[in-house]
Amino acid sequence: MSLQAHSSVLSPSDDVSIDPTTNTGSNPQGHTRTFSNQGIGSSPSSDGFLSKISKYFKSSTPPTPTSSSSTVTSPSTLTPSGGGNNNSTSTTGQYYSNSVNNIGSSNSTITTPNTSNVVGSTNTPDYYQQKQKQLQKKQKKKGTTPKPGTISKVRGASFPIEAISEQIVGVFPQNSNITTSEDDSLSEKSKVYDPFEEGPRMSIGSDNGSNSSSAGNTFVIRNSGNISNYLSDDEGVSESKLEKFRQILNSNDDIDIENLRKLSWRGIPSSVRAVVWKILLGYMPLNRERTEQIINRKRKEYLDYVSKYYNEEHLQKTEQETALQKQIHIDVIRTNPDLQLYQNPRIQQALERILYIWSIRHPASGYVQGLNDLVTPFMSVFLYDFMKCDILTCDPDTISNEIMEHMECDSFWCFTQFIDFIQDHYTFAQPGIQRMVNKLEEIIQKIDESLFNHLQSNGLEFIQFSFRWMNCLLMRELSLKLVVKLFDAYIAEGDEFENFHTYVCAAFLKTWSERLQKMDFAEMVMFLQHLPTRTWTFNEMELLLSQAYMLKVLYDGNNHLN
Amino acid sequence: MSYSYLFKYIIIGDTGVGKSCLLLQFTDKRFQPVHDLTIGVEFGARMINIDGKQVKLQIWDTAGQESFRSITRSYYRGAAGALLVYDITRRETFHHLTTWLEDARRHSNSTMTIMLVGNKCDLDSRRAVSYEEGKKFAQQHDLIFLETSAKNDENVEEAFNYTARIINEKIEKGIIDVTNEMNGVKVGNAPTATTNLLEKPTTSEPKGKCCG
Lengths: 562, 212
Hints:
The complex is a heterodimer. By secondary structure, chain A is mainly alpha-helical. Chain A contains 21 helices and four strands. Chain A is globular and about 55 Å long. In chain B, strands 1, 2, 3, 4, 5, 6 and 7 form a seven-stranded mixed sheet that branches. Chain A: Residues 1-156, 195-217 are annotated as: Disordered.
């Protein structure tokens, strides 16, 4: 299933000239940040832009989708029927409200033929048709097909509208296959390997039907063109976007980290993800000439820690250290139990060493359960980068010792830096997590009062369901594939990602608002611990990130929230 | 579905002793050999029948790791029953029982019923704590005791049900004040008194040992 069209709404992409790493409010560190005005024409604080968004987020009775199984018609099948570009503002504002709200529907589909059941305003398709027609004309002139996700310019307060429409067009390049794996007609050729495709973690007491669907049900839009297989998780990542990454990464001068950060926020192509993560996390130097030397030194440093602190021949461990190792050992076996890769002894041993070394080097926090989850995106991404194959199904025993070692060293350092951003989440009594849970509660009270009241009147406390969201950064709620995408944004955010994560959680909770409000206490707790995210694709993920970004822009730095 | 009472439970004990597996077996009748780590708390619910009365159990399954103790402590309040679980194959989980018990007694209400559970009794060949030791500890600390196997579904049902019977008895004897929700008991909308008058509760103690 896909919500590609929706997902593009308000996407804080560099492509729409919004600088995702900036916002209008002042952040907790006290830096005052400004919105990038390039191509927008008016700042987001201008009435036209903000009032529309505020209206939605503050609405106590948000608009409801017209049907739980919403469908967006492919623009390519539509014919133009009035509705000019100039008067489309209000129309799409309406569309935005509905589409945002509609994220809760797991049944949303994009179909190509014979459908005209469009979510929200009936004016909306006209607008798409119009835009599609215009773009087709443009393409004919230029003799090019639109690049997915590419938006040349966004004007005035109508930023969301333009973003929606142009990205929708971008989603349907003329040579692309739009397929669902549920579709019998899906040819083997168009089934492309997806390295991070898998289901979300399962847990006890599953009571919703969503778990019955297999991971194979995930719907994806893929470019069947000349992009090689290992790039196939890059839905919506165009060649031009990849090219932008390449330009930065291959620069003869020092790497432009700020541009890299901005570019990375909305997702990094998997072919460059490993290197970009390493650069953004400060593991790889900006000067390419020094890369090898520095990486080698860091790898050696980690291996020295291992032989100094871990390998038993060299030392007598204290009782505490033995207990720590035992604990980590038990947990490593229970990490990603549904992923074959993480059941492999070599992978488990690497994970065990990373966690052990990290823990003894961070005595203030020590090992806290959940950290084991947080190492795995790094291991997966780096392994994938070295192997360029389906790491989730390939035989880990075929991985060379050298690759395993490099992957382990790199994962250790990048994980270390990543967790350094959120140090006090894992120290005694986990104050950072308490802080985030409290803030989540405050945000929800502002943006969805009826949900907030419903939770309160049923006696459901935020800590009861969101502790895990904070402790594991939604890794238990989303598939590894989507978590990797989430990490793209977090790594781009750097030391501010804690704050952003709170807004992601707020947008995430709001996604289920309508359903939750029909449930009692027990139903809500059960639902929230087994959320039906199994069918989620990049599209839902992008929409989630966009919503979180908008919430952050609107509410962060607001005194009553801080 | 209507019920006479709602009892709130908490499951505590060291990490990896099988708390979540016990809950999963009880609520879903299935066993997951490699279970995800519990982060914070998880929740399960099931209806049982105690002496003809429908009783709804709401169970908080807590994370065992020390780091989460400050979070999980708050769940003692308002619990009527607790399953204190150790792993019969790991002696240190038995040694930590005293700390767990102190923690539970300090943070719960005095009427909370505690059931000591020695889990993984299917792994008898790797047993590190004898049945007698478990039973002795329970007697010393005034706890009910059972050995269970979440894997083979042995005594799992009994562990939850027997605790509920004790709570029910405490209600009948007036030890638990059902009007105070902090005691972990809530009166439902189904009649509670009729069956008591008609039939005498039969609370036969289940056999404590699950394997041999």
